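[Discussion] Sanity-checking designs against the backbone

I'm trying to build intuition for which residues belong where. Below is a structure token string of 523 positions. I'd appreciate it if someone posts a full sequence so I can compare it with mine line by line.
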């Protein structure tokens, strides 16, 4: 039955490079000593769900046993104290008994699913990018990770298919944002377990969860018509959102499922706020953060992690809590962005923070200082992007100052079309190094001008070759190109913004009182 407690069927790569098969208690023992490098069957979009499940189970077992177990035997005893042996079977023998992440059910089933990835959260109806229904005759751990992804991360998909409680809408997403300590996968999971144990009492007060509430929801019978009250659940409860059962026949493991008429947990009026250890909360709207197609761009990451004007837009999750012992750290951000009948991409970002920055994060004043530098850098990128657009307007107007000052709709539309890819290329490059540049300025503020000069130079290097490809009569190309370059620099020098007062330091003038030689001085 591939019992997670007793059977070694989960393929694990250890830090010494050895590939082994372990049971769940064996995995916890390896995690405790930070010996796990990865899992062979784990797909990128499943990393967050598997990490969160391990941390939730580890925290619940540690709390109930009075301390965090260390050996595989201790972990097995702690997990079996939470649920009977059969509740850890990947493939259950009896429908009226729980199997792993599969609540006891009764009645008929409407589907037979032979591919493990077909029960996963990815929406691939057009079979683009990630192909659907490929994992036929899959290994048991492939089914395990797909089942974890389904039951702990899935949203609503039409009538009878409800999503998890840890989303603020049927088309929302469950984000994963937290501090990863030095070390590997195990160090991160164990840090989260320890943080969860420290925050348990406060979590109950904040959310209304019950100290003696339900913890493993798959162990409770579910006929598809009844709901659990949120107040009847315990901190870190493990969600299930679908009525599904795994089977086995001569062809291997397969799944059967049935719809429900209601969601498993009644979340009326809660907007997805459950005390999830990894999910930020939108303070203004009092609801769980939901990612969009931007993923974790620099601007989104700044809004999530940093205050603005002394106030935070989002309450950081408990997984972001810093410890006095923290020196250098990494912030990991992961989310699968869902939409109405579609998936808008899997987004993952890792942000390393150096010792100086981490020390500033320990105080409100220091955090605000980092936020100010980040905000300045975002403003600069926005202004340089605007200068690219104005440079393209200058090209399209052929140097006609009246048309540049007040572009016609046709010129503006053409400029937006032509400038878009150039701005996108610059912002993609800058986004990848955004927090690195912010920390450089924090450590060497005297180098701000040099960084700005390099950034403007990179924008120019993208703009000029692009203008050589713009459609225009050959007789006007040189004039238009020069006009476009002049307009680019003029937008930075003369328009009010953050860069304009610094312009003469970025590009010192060669002539006194020479406002007409913008191109010459900039070059």
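Best answer:
Here's mine. Compare freely.
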């Amino acid at each position: 039955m591939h019992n997670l407690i007793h059977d070694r069927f989960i393929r694990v790569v250890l830090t010494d490079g050895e590939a082994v098969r372990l049971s769940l208690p064996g995995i916890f023992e390896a995690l405790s000593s930070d010996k796990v490098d990865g899992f062979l069957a784990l797909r990128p979009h499943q990393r967050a769900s598997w990490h969160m499940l391990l941390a939730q189970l580890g925290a619940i077992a540690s709390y109930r046993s009075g301390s965090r177990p260390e050996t595989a035997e201790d972990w097995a005893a702690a997990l079996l104290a939470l649920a009977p042996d059969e509740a850890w079977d990947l493939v259950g023998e009896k429908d009226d008994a729980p199997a792993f992440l599969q609540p006891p059910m009764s009645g008929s089933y409407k589907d037979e699913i032979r591919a493990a990835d077909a029960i996963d959260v990815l929406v691939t109806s057009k079979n683009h990018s990630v192909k659907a229904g490929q994992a036929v005759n899959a290994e048991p751990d492939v089914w395990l990770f797909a089942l974890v992804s389904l039951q702990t991360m899935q949203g609503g998909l039409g009538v009878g298919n409800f999503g998890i409680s840890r989303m603020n809408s049927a088309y929302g997403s469950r984000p994963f944002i937290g501090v990863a300590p030095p070390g590997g996968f195990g160090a991160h999971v164990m840090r989260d377990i320890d943080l969860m144990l420290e925050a348990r009492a406060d979590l109950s007060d904040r959310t209304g969860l019950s100290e003696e509430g339900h913890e493993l929801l798959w162990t409770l019978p579910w006929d598809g018509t009844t709901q659990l009250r949120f107040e009847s659940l315990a901190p870190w409860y493990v969600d299930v959102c679908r009525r599904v059962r795994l089977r086995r026949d001569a062809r291997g493991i397969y799944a059967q499922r049935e719809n429900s008429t209601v969601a498993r947990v009644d979340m009326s009026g809660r907007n997805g706020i459950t005390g999830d250890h990894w999910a930020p909360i939108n303070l203004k709207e009092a609801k769980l953060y939901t990612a969009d197609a931007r993923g974790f761009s620099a601007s989104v990451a700044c809004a999530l992690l940093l205050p603005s004007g002394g106030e935070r837009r989002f309450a950081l999750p408990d997984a972001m809590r810093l410890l006095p012992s923290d020196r250098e750290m990494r912030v990991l951000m992961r989310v699968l962005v869902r939409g109405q009948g579609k998936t808008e991409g899997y987004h993952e970002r890792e942000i390393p923070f150096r010792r100086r920055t981490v020390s500033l994060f320990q105080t409100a004043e220091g955090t605000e200082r980092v936020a100010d530098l980040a905000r300045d850098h975002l403003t600069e990128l926005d202004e340089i992007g605007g200068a690219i657009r104005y440079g393209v307007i200058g090209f399209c107007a052929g140097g006609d100052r009246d048309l540049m000052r007040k572009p016609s709709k046709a010129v503006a539309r053409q400029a937006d079309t032509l400038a878009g890819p150039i701005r996108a290329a610059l912002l993609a490059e800058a986004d990848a190094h955004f927090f690195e540049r912010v920390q450089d300025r924090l450590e060497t503020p005297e180098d701000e001008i040099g960084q700005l000069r390099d950034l403007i130079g990179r924008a120019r290097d993208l703009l000029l070759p692009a203008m050589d490809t713009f459609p225009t009569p050959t007789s006007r190309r040189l004039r238009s190109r020069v006009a476009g370059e002049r307009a680019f620099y003029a937008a930075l020098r003369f328009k009010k913004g953050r860069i304009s007062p610094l312009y003469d330091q970025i590009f010192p003038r060669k002539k006194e009182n020479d406002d007409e030689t913008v191109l010459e001085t900039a070059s």
